[in-house]
Design goal:
This protein has 349 residues and is of the alpha/beta class. It has 2 domains: 211 residues, Quinone Oxidoreductase, Chain A, domain 1 (Alpha-Beta Complex); 131 residues, Rossmann fold (3-Layer(aba) Sandwich), CATH 3.40.50.720. It is built from 11 helices and 19 strands.
Length: 349
């Protein structure tokens, strides 16, 4: 039997969110039901809601940074128990047998991972996925995540996107003690990148247009913040960094930033600008520099990230809002008037 969940949804293309009810599927043997406590507001939620990334089926419930408690488990579930705190991130299913899924990289599933909202779930009879701006969600147990009881659940919710998006490339490119890491931008994604890189033992520098966030950057574990709007920062920091994470979606001159890479250094693109990006060939051939990209992470790696952050006390800086404030939160996020992530108290839905 399906169950009704209260939610906030986009009722039509590029329209403000409104309160509504949605149906969640009946539990299958390998499903868990989570009563949602908190859901982070990700910038990608805004892109989808405002139509930046095209039409979807409506009503559409955003949200893929979900923390709550298990309220029901299917008959075959052994890894979760009722009452346990659990999370759901950006994907809720994949084919399970392609080369990528076989390596625990379901996020790169060759047939396409099923995103937490806004997609037809071909593994659940075409069910249209609805996200975490709601009171509950049903998800396959193998795509649920265990959340330590000792952490702040509101501060942990954004880690299910911002955390894994930054943890995965840092791990993949060998970040650790002695590694010099630069983070471009210190917003909702970048401030988490600074905290995680610092917890890994890296020497962290922030590139930001101005210096207004310098005290925050230092408090989060960075050694320095470089204001890119004044002076010739690239010349001053030529050949300085092993890894640069670009967390912004602005159209940057990547040649300039890549000049700051050391031998075999890599600039990893995380933000999603709407225009093509690239650099001159000589930028790559000098010092064997690389330009790469990264997209969230697989389920086992996301669990590893959550455990790492719990162990090292890493959480996002959040402002908790009632559900009625979601539309205003979207507006403030677009105006960069949040420190640093909005999280919805889903008990207010």
């Amino acid at each position: 039997m399906t169950t009704t969940a209260h939610a906030w949804a986009v009722p039509g293309f590029a329209q403000p969110l409104v309160a509504t009810d949605i149906e969640r599927r009946e539990l299958r043997p390998d499903d868990i039901r989570i009563d949602i406590e908190y859901c982070g507001v990700c910038h990608s939620d805004i892109h989808v809601a405002t139509g930046d990334w095209g039409e979807r089926r409506y009503p559409l419930v955003p949200g893929h940074e979900i923390i709550g408690r298990v309220s029901e488990v299917g008959s075959a579930v052994t890894d979760f128990r009722v009452g346990e705190r659990a999370g759901v991130g950006c994907i809720i299913d994949s084919c399970g047998h392609c080369h990528c899924c076989g390596q625990g990289a379901e996020n790169y599933c060759l047939t396409g991972p099923i995103k937490t909202y806004g997609e037809d779930n071909r593994y659940a009879d075409g069910e249209y996925t609805q996200g975490g701006y709601s009171t509950s969600i049903v998800v396959k147990d193998s795509f649920g995540l265990h959340v330590c009881e000792s952490v702040d659940p509101a501060a942990t919710a954004p880690l299910l996107c911002a955390g894994i998006t930054t943890y995965s490339p840092l791990k993949n490119w060998g970040a650790g003690p002695g590694t010099k890491v630069a983070v471009i931008g210190m917003g909702g994604l970048g401030h988490v990148a600074v905290k995680i890189a610092a917890a890994m033992g890296c020497e962290v520098t922030v590139f930001s247009r101005g210096d207004s966030k310098k005290s925050d950057a230092l408090a989060f574990g960075a050694k320095d913040l470089i204001a890119t709007g004044t002076g010739n920062f690239a010349e001053d920091h030529r050949g300085s960094f092993d890894i640069i994470l670009n967390t912004v979606s602005a159209d940057l001159d990547l040649d300039t930033y890549m000049q700051c890479l050391r031998l075999d250094g890599v600039l990893v693109q995380l933000g999603l600008p709407m225009k093509r990006m690239g650099a001159m060939p000589r930028t790559f051939t000098q010092f064997r520099r690389s330009l790469a990209g990264s997209f969230i992470g697989g389920i086992s790696e996301t669990q590893e990230m959550l455990d790492f952050c719990a162990e090292h006390g890493v959480g996002a800086e959040v402002e908790i809002i009632d559900a009625a404030g979601i539309n205003e939160a979207f507006t403030r996020t677009l105006a960069s008037k949040v420190r640093y992530r909005f999280v919805i108290d889903c008990s207010t839905i």
